[in-house]
Amino acid sequence: MDKTPILSVLMPVFNSELFVAEAIESILNQTFKDFEFLILDDTSTDKSSRIIKNFEQQDSRIKVYQNEKNLGVVESRNKLISLSKGKYIAWLDSDDIAFEKRLEKQINFLEAHPEIGMAGAFPIIIDENGNKIRKWQFETDPQKLKIELFFHSPFLSSSVMIRKSRLPQDFYDSKFPVAEDFDLYSKISEYSEIANIAKFLVKYRINSKGLSKSNTEKMEQLSIQVIKEHAERLGIKLEENTIKDLRKAKKTSKIALEEIAEIESSLISLKNLLSKNNYFDKKAVNGVIQKYWFEACRKSTYNGLKILGIFFKSVLYCKKLSLKDNCRLFVRALIKF
Q1: What is the per-residue pLDDT across 245-274, written as a single tens digit (0 to 9) for each?
Q2: What topology does CATH give the domain 7-205?
Q3: pTM score of the predicted model
């Protein structure tokens, strides 16, 4: 009888002939070896199926599955989880790349921290040719991550490793077809600690075609719904407009002065609600809320020095803000004055 692997690496594939070989090789070259590698082809119309079947013949850890019809990403992910046998599952999208010590570092981290149900990592962003574009760094503190989930998804799918016992019963929810990851991470956080490892362990490839405008709008709508339902499960009532303001503080590159008051009000409301809920660490609440108040005002410094008065007079201002950040805000506003 074959020994059950501690880890299942899962990869859904659809029309990824240009990148899937490199993605697969990055898993096969891992320093950590005790895994099964499940690859599901969602009826690709290019050479993806042929490529992954060739790899299956070369390495016994690989098991290739084929959908009879196109199921889409949510059902394909759920199918892979159902087929997996490992104590942990790790995702890698078919156009991304894992650094060779990714699995080793995440397994060691989760084995050392049994309270953590899911661990992500930092990604390096690359273009279609593999050229580095930039780096992303997410929050790493488990208590702050719980609060970050009210603003955005602070994880990258291709970097996460999940303790399988902490998955919700229905896995990914089909009603969130372009925000299924965000919903899953929110649910895991409700009964388990979550974390990001402060190391760059994956390369995330940006598709030049990108998301269509309709998909981008749909993702935003569904992300708002994910946050609303997550809050409700924790006994917190957030109005949709409040969530939209919180999203602006995170996502919008420029914020008008007339929007600042609305964002400030929404941040105060969230801070008060979270501070009354024993699920959240008050120090972490203060830290994350302060960060987004700073970010909102930083994105409004193009309006000049007026934003400084608004920032410093707010009840959200924390005197623990670093001298560096205070100077950054002042200089940016002064330049625009």
Answers
A1: 999 999 888 999 899 999 999 999 999 999
A2: Spore Coat Polysaccharide Biosynthesis Protein SpsA; Chain A (3.90.550)
A3: 0.92
